């Protein structure tokens, strides 16, 4: 983890603790999204228990994958309600092609465009991880709006991009720090706190 990511992570952890107990902290998080032009990384919401996907996993078949739990489906809807109730503009919603990410995006925002650059890095070799991270940085790094860009993906992907291991349903607002990494502007980690 780079020094910049480590420092940004510590600052965001402190902000998370404040936001969880201070309504003004949560209000500040949402105000950063009000005018658009931001990139939001969203880890898919809670799934059925497990790690990775079953051995018979097929990308084109949701029945072979680890999918959203009932709590996860409710949390995804809460995310959408939180954006709508605050009039947060969303221009585009991109997602991993895994069903749990597509379903998170669809339940939260009512639309989604699945893209390979957000697919899980869980079993990828280092070179494939770097290619996916580079594709996301190139695509989203210079984003300016209008509206906000939402990228729904997996914990490993977000960790590769920010150094943060996010909770299910965690929202992380980022900006390009260098051509190789994002800097974290803010995060909201607790689905019940949206």
Overview in brief:
This protein has 194 residues and is of the alpha/beta class.
Tell me what you see in this structure.
It is a single chain. This protein is an alpha/beta fold and 194 residues long. It has one domain (3-193): Rossmann fold, CATH 3.40.50. Helices cover 40% and strands 18% of the residues. It has 6 helices and 6 strands; from the N terminus they run ααβαβαβαβαββ. The protein has a 6-stranded mixed beta sheet with strand order 3-2-4-1-5-6, with helices on both faces. Strand 5 (171-178) and strand 6 (181-188) form a beta hairpin. The radius of gyration is 16 Å and the shape is globular. The two termini are 28 Å apart.
Ends apart, CA distance between termini:
28 Å
CATH class category:
Alpha Beta
Counted beta strands: 6
Q: What are the secondary-structure elements, in order, as H or E?
A: HHEHEHEHEHEE
């Amino acid at each position: 983890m780079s020094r910049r990511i480590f420092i940004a992570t510590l600052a965001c952890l402190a902000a998370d603790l404040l936001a969880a107990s201070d309504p003004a902290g949560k209000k500040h998080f949402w105000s950063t999204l009000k005018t658009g032009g931001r990139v939001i990384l969203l880890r898919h919401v809670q799934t059925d228990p497990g790690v990775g996907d079953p051995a018979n996993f097929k990308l084109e078949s949701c029945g072979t994958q680890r999918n959203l739990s009932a709590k996860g489906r409710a949390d995804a809807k809460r995310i959408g309600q939180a954006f709508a109730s605050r009039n947060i503009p969303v221009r585009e919603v991109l997602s991993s092609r895994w069903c749990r990410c597509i379903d998170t995006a669809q339940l939260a925002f009512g639309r989604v465009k699945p893209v390979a650059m957000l697919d899980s890095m869980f079993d990828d070799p280092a070179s494939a991880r770097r290619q996916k991270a580079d594709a996301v940085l190139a695509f989203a790094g210079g984003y300016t709006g209008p509206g906000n860009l939402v990228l729904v993906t997996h914990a490993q992907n977000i960790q590769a991009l920010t150094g943060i291991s996010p909770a299910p349903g965690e929202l992380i607002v980022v900006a390009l720090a260098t051509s190789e990494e994002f800097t974290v502007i803010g995060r909201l980690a607790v689905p019940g706190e949206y």
